[in-house]
Specification:
Elements (H helix, E strand, L loop, with lengths): L1 H26 L5 E2 L6 H6 L26 E4 L6 H14 L34 E2 L7 H7 L5 E6 L2 H11 L2 H5 L6 H7 L5 H4 E4 L4 E4 L4 H5 L10 H14 L2 E4 L3 H12 L27 H10 L1 H20 L3 H21 L1 H4 L5 E3 L8 E3 L1 H8 L2 H11 L13 H9 L13
Parallel strand pairs: 2-3, 2-4, 4-7
Antiparallel strand pairs: 1-8, 5-6, 8-9
Helix pairs in contact: 3-17, 10-13, 11-14
């Protein structure tokens, strides 16, 4: 009897182990790469990095899930939100699919902080454009006059505290606010209203007021600085944005955002990968500062519109993800592994052996594709240089006299008591 029971228990344990292995393999995503998958794995493990790709396979690409990708889109490039990394995806898609871009006559700004004008961009016959991915204040009326009704509107925002820290450093706001402490964030958040007359920068050339400490995110999305205290108007405006935009990405959840973008746009996996090596990242003494509860309460009151904007699209993101079903997280796992390994390949092996390519096999989310030197080059090229490539490809020479003055330069002019300008040496 004892022997029989032990045998039964052994068989049961083996069966359970088999079922567990089957469940894991059927619910997790793995991919295989050739020829890199057999090259250098020992070296990678010694460096405490994950091996390039696991050897198990899974379902093939089913094209019926996405018959027609959306290839008309506007990406509103916001300030200090990680948009330098994100815009690469939209520029890359534009290049790979030879789409027609509404491009600035010079630089990467269509307009800011003023409404767009016909003199700000390069006109083409018929005025029919597929994409836009520049800095500009969101202007629904103007954009709807340039793009068809089926255009997808996309943008990117970030949590307001991190945004304020980044703005404080980038725009030299302590100088504008006349704060001399080593932690300007702490000093400012003790009483933000004390600095209101200093923080509101007035751009005389276009009669626009901008505040880099307050609702900068909402401003880039088209909400005026003067509406900071009118929360009813802010709520109405942000509800309109929620209706207008196909997706607003969140910097704190960038991977989830791009997996959702791929699904909503019916794009392929290769279209939404980005280089894992950080770009345009600065370190400064107050970057890691955690405000006190009272300082955070002041911040929420001061940046009430930005917090309403962020909270709205935070809820919207997770609501849209929930609607995708549980396999969204299988794809997210696969996406993160693929992104990490492609980045590792482009920043390592490809640089050592430029002729070596990386073949990513088909999955249920994307067909097979090849990562080569050109793919790596474009993925690692800065937004400014890719904009110039797109301009040159369309035989559009940069016209320097139309170069929009960047806001950081106009802020420096205000700090020095000098006039602000629209274009290089030119008032609007």
């Amino acid at each position: 009897m004892g022997t029989t029971w032990k045998g039964f228990a052994t068989v049961t344990v083996m069966l359970l182990c088999f079922l567990l292995v089957y469940y894991i393999q059927s619910n997790m995503t793995f991919h295989k790469i050739s020829p890199f998958s057999t090259f250098g794995q020992k070296t990678l493990l010694q460096r405490r990095r994950p091996p390039p790709f696991k050897s198990l396979t899974f379902s093939s690409w089913d094209q019926s899930t996405c018959l027609k990708p959306r290839q008309k889109f506007v990406f509103i490039k916001t300030h200090k939100t990680g948009s330098m990394t994100s815009v690469n995806i939209f520029q890359r898609y534009t290049i790979h699919h030879n789409l027609t871009t509404l491009v600035a006559k010079a630089g990467g700004y269509i307009s800011w902080p003023f409404p767009p004008a016909e003199t700000d961009y390069v006109h083409i016959p018929g005025e029919r454009y597929d994409v836009l991915f520049n800095h500009m204040v969101y202007n629904k009326t103007w954009l709807w006059s340039k793009f068809p009704a089926n255009t997808a509107y996309i943008s990117l925002i970030r949590e307001p505290l991190g945004h304020l820290k980044s703005c404080m450093r980038f725009y030299s706001l302590p100088q504008l606010l006349r704060i001399t402490s080593t932690n300007p964030i702490k000093t400012f958040l003790r009483d933000p209203w004390r600095y209101k007359n200093l923080s509101e920068a007035y751009f005389r050339f276009c009669n626009v007021t901008w505040d880099g400490t307050r609702n900068h995110l909402a401003f880039d999305m088209g909400y005026p600085t003067e509406g900071a205290e009118d929360m009813e108007a802010a709520e109405r405006y942000i509800k309109g944005l929620e209706y207008d935009f196909t997706l607003v990405l969140l910097l704190e959840h960038l991977d989830e955002s791009f997996v959702l973008l791929r699904r909503l746009m019916c794009w392929e996996m290769q279209d939404v990968l980005y280089d894992s090596v950080p770009k345009n990242v600065g370190n400064y003494s107050y970057k890691s500062y955690t405000p006190t509860p009272r300082e955070l309460a002041n911040l929420r009151r001061w940046k009430a519109v930005d917090y309403l904007l962020y909270d709205t699209f935070n809820r919207s993101l997770w609501r849209k993800i929930a609607a995708q079903g549980p396999n969204f997280y299988q794809e997210l796992y696969y996406y993160r592994e693929l992104k990490r390994n492609v980045s590792f390949y482009c920043n390592g092996e490809q640089k050592r052996k430029p002729n070596r390519t990386l073949t990513v096999e088909a999955t249920k989310w994307s067909p097979q594709f090849v990562v080569d030197a050109e793919y790596c080059r474009i993925m690692q090229t800065t937004a400014w240089n890719l904009t110039e490539e797109i301009r040159q490809k369309a035989s559009r020479k940069e016209e320097g006299r139309w170069l929009i003055i960047r806001p950081v330069l106009n802020l420096r002019s205000i700090i020095k008591g000098q006039p602000t300008l629209t274009n290089t040496g030119l008032n609007r």
